[in-house]
UniProtKB/TrEMBL annotation:
It comes from Candidatus Kaiserbacteria bacterium RIFOXYB1_FULL_46_14. GO terms for molecular function: lytic endotransglycosylase activity. GO terms for biological process: cell wall organization; peptidoglycan biosynthetic process. Coiled coil: none annotated. The keyword Zinc does not apply. The chain crosses the membrane at residues 12-35. Its main location: membrane. The gene is mltG. Its EC number is 4.2.2.29. It catalyses: a peptidoglycan chain = a peptidoglycan chain with N-acetyl-1,6-anhydromuramyl-[peptide] at the reducing end + a peptidoglycan chain with N-acetylglucosamine at the non-reducing end. InterPro entries: MLTG-like. The lineage of its organism: Bacteria, Candidatus Kaiseribacteriota. This is Endolytic murein transglycosylase.
Length: 327
């Protein structure tokens, strides 16, 4: 005979267990949900994220995850389609100066107002800090060039050249922080190779800055890099026109023969070794060219009037190239 009291107690126990399991599972899911909506540890502070026209909702949240603005593209997608209308996503560039939750990030790109009113600031590879300041002053209403240059003293080479989308009222301090932060982000994966390179990071950046002005393609950068590093090893002078151009503040086309005799540590015709500082702010291609130079037998190079490179193994071959291509 079945004891109904025992059945009743067992049934109640099972229900309590099921309810407890559901509550525990729900609590765990809520904790995981809360955690996944928190800003990532490496949230892209002082960085712009551009949402282009025509992207699908899935592509948009994937872009946000790649930029480390959200922890999970799946969760961001759920937030986007559950609490917002994906059709309201505003194409444009969004500047983030502080970490935001996934909810806040999605809100930023779907709110009724347009995306941040930003200006496009292109800082070319190889340009000096002074040239950066001149370009920034043209497009930013609150930018103080003198303040920027004073604060950036000693940072030549470590301000990353790129195309930035930033608020029109960006200040000198904000731009400097953005350029320094971007440099650290961009070269992070190259820190170890630079540390183990004979020139170390500072020397790598100096040589990369020379390559930006001496070469004009990835291939020529790697070949010229190999030549200049070989010259350093042999104790030969680098003889780079770009370093004199930097010291005198005149374009390469205006240099005269007597300029090669100027007594300045940036005169690589007169003094062996690298220049005391970088002569501009190099990009990744030139940095990579220093880390991975092309190994050739060349010791000399020139560029003709059309920008084509001509290499030589010996000084006699070099003089022949000069006579042939630089008439």
């Amino acid at each position: 005979m079945i004891d109904m009291d025992i059945v009743g107690r067992t049934s109640r126990f099972l229900w309590l267990w099921v309810i407890g399991f559901i509550i525990a599972t729900a609590s765990l899911l809520l904790v995981l949900f809360w955690w996944q909506t928190r800003p990532p540890a490496d949230f892209p502070i002082n960085t712009t994220i551009t949402i282009t026209r025509g992207l699908s909702a899935a592509a948009i949240v994937e872009k946000l995850e790649e930029a480390k603005a959200v922890r999970s593209s799946l969760l961001a997608h759920i937030i986007l389609i559950t609490w917002h209308d994906p059709n309201n996503v505003k194409a444009g560039s969004y500047y983030f100066d502080t970490p935001l939750t996934a909810f806040s990030v999605i809100d930023r790109i779907t709110r009724d107002a347009d995306g941040d009113t930003l200006v496009r600031l292109t800082l070319p590879e190889g340009y000096t800090t002074k040239e950066f300041a001149l370009l920034a002053a043209e497009g930013l209403s609150q930018f103080d060039g003198t303040e920027f240059l004073n604060s950036a003293a000693g940072m030549e080479g470590y301000l990353f050249p790129d195309t930035y989308y930033i608020p029109e009222d960006f200040t000198a301090a904000e731009l400097l922080t953005l350029l320094k932060t971007t440099y650290e982000q961009k070269v992070a994966s190259r820190k170890e190779p630079m540390a183990s390179h004979p020139l170390k990071e500072d020397g790598v950046i100096v040589l990369a800055s020379l390559l930006e002005r001496e070469a004009n393609t990835e291939e020529s950068m790697r070949i010229v890099s190999g030549i200049l590093q070989k010259r350093l090893q042999l104790g030969m002078r680098l003889q780079t026109d770009a370093s004199i151009e930097y010291a005198l503040g005149r374009p390469l086309s205006d240099l005269r023969a007597e300029d090669l005799e100027r007594d300045t540590p940036y005169n690589t015709y007169k003094y062996a070794g690298l220049t005391p500082t970088p002569i501009g702010n190099p990009g990744l291609n030139s940095i990579d060219a220093v880390l991975e130079p092309e190994d050739t037998e060349y010791l000399y190079y020139i560029t003709d009037e059309e920008g084509n490179f001509h290499y030589a193994k010996t000084f006699d071959e070099h003089r022949a190239n000069i006579a042939k291509y630089l008439k």
